[in-house]
Write a structure and sequence with these properties.
This protein is an alpha/beta fold. It has 13 helices and 18 strands.
């Protein structure tokens, strides 16, 4: 089959790889019909995530048709349309029983490797390094789905792929980012990053009762999308305006009630700080640029919440722990527990409350995945989200 493979820093290729096969009785094989390039895939592309190997199949946002199931699978059969959540969860461990699916204790076969970096291992993820299991991803014609009774959500016929594809990751991730803010009616929420996850965080915050949502980014077209599609009431272009000062002006000096970091480890920011962090990354003195996170902590009102859904992988510099402690801030973070949200969000899509397809700007065949990565990385042609058609 054809699959998008990591071939080294800033290099992906669509090549022939062996077809997946059932390895365990709980597996399913899915013929991928639609897949997407995620912002966190760019961290792999840019070489910031360790343990990638040449030839690894990429992709953790995918859906398709079940073509084969293992003997222990009870909830799926051949012919079912499914969206596959990006965290792989067993459904039986203590974490899964608490619906903390992205912290599953059984799905990462390389748990010892992850424990060396993070102390404990999270769940295995599709297409996201050997640190997180070495599972082949879904930017391919077919994919093996472990624990198939736990993850995939069935999609009724008649709903286009593009309406539901993002149930795999970015829609529930944005929703969870807003949920972690404990939003009360009338509150102000600021969102760093107007990429696809940020757009859904903005929309979700409005659905949860926020009176004002403020989008922060540097690309005018993304800020315009945030205002039109994400429901942002105000926008801040950090390339031209000081984020902290502007937020203080917009909130009468108090700061937002909640701040969402939807950027992660490759954050941009003011020239001097950005140059400093890039230099430390180049010298291997830090792994993650925390510019957006530090801005969010500094700007949040006393006693407020900072919600972190942007991907971080290792260590950050200049972390303002003094501000967190002395100002009584709450930090909540996590890879999204996708399985907790898929059915509820599917119902919202069916009712017309959310249209996830609005973030799609580019549609390409799987064979042009390398071009999709280039467009997405460089934000060319007003690129916001790339969907690949696998078949």
């Amino acid at each position: 089959m054809k699959a998008t493979c990591w071939m080294g820093r800033k290099k992906v290729e669509v090549v022939d790889v062996p077809d997946p096969r059932l390895l365990n009785a709980g597996d399913a094989i899915v013929r991928v019909t639609s897949t997407a390039i995620c912002g966190s895939d760019l961290h792999l592309y840019n070489g910031f995530v360790p343990s990638m190997r040449k030839g690894d199949v990429l992709g953790h946002e995918f859906m398709g048709e079940v073509v084969e199931v293992g003997s222990a699978v009870r909830s799926l059969r051949a012919g079912d349309r499914v969206v596959v959540p990006f965290p792989i969860a067993c459904g039986r461990c203590t974490m899964c029983q608490q619906q903390l699916f992205a912290a599953c204790e059984n799905s990462n076969p390389n748990a010892l490797l992850a424990e060396k970096l993070w102390g404990r291992s999270p769940a295995g993820l599709f297409g996201y390094s050997h640190l997180l299991g070495g599972f082949a991803g879904g930017q391919a014609e077919y994919a093996r789905v472990p624990f198939a009774d736990v993850g995939p959500v069935k999609i009724p016929n008649g709903i286009p792929d593009e309406k539901v594809l993002f149930l795999s990751d970015i829609l529930p991730t944005g929703y969870m980012g807003a949920e972690m803010c404990d939003i009360k009616p009338g509150q102000v929420v600021a969102v760093w990053g107007a990429g696809p996850v940020g757009q859904f965080a903005l929309r979700s915050a409005r659905l949860m009762g926020a009176e004002r949502v403020i989008a922060i980014d540097r690309f005018p077209y993304r800020l315009q999308m945030a205002r039109v599609e994400g429901g942002a009431t105000e926008i801040i272009n950090y390339a031209t305006d000081d984020v902290h000062d502007t937020l203080m002006d917009l909130t009468a000096g108090r700061g937002p009630d909640a701040c969402i970091d939807a950027v992660g480890l490759e954050a941009h920011g003011p020239a001097a700080i950005y140059a400093y962090d890039r230099a430390k990354q180049a010298l291997m003195l830090e792994s993650d640029r925390s510019i957006a996170l530090c801005q969010a902590i500094r700007a949040c009102r006393n006693g407020g919440v900072v919600s972190v859904i942007g991907v971080y992988g290792g260590l950050v510099d200049k972390f303002p722990m003094g501000a967190v402690l002395n100002r009584g801030l709450t930090i909540r973070a996590g890879q999204c527990h996708v399985q907790r949200y898929t059915r509820m969000l599917l119902e919202r899509i069916q009712r017309g409350e959310i249209d996830p397809s609005l973030v799609i700007t580019h549609r390409l065949p799987l064979s042009e995945a390398a071009e999709g990565y280039r467009l997405f990385l460089n934000k060319e042609d007003r690129c916001e989200k790339v969907v690949l058609r696998a078949n």
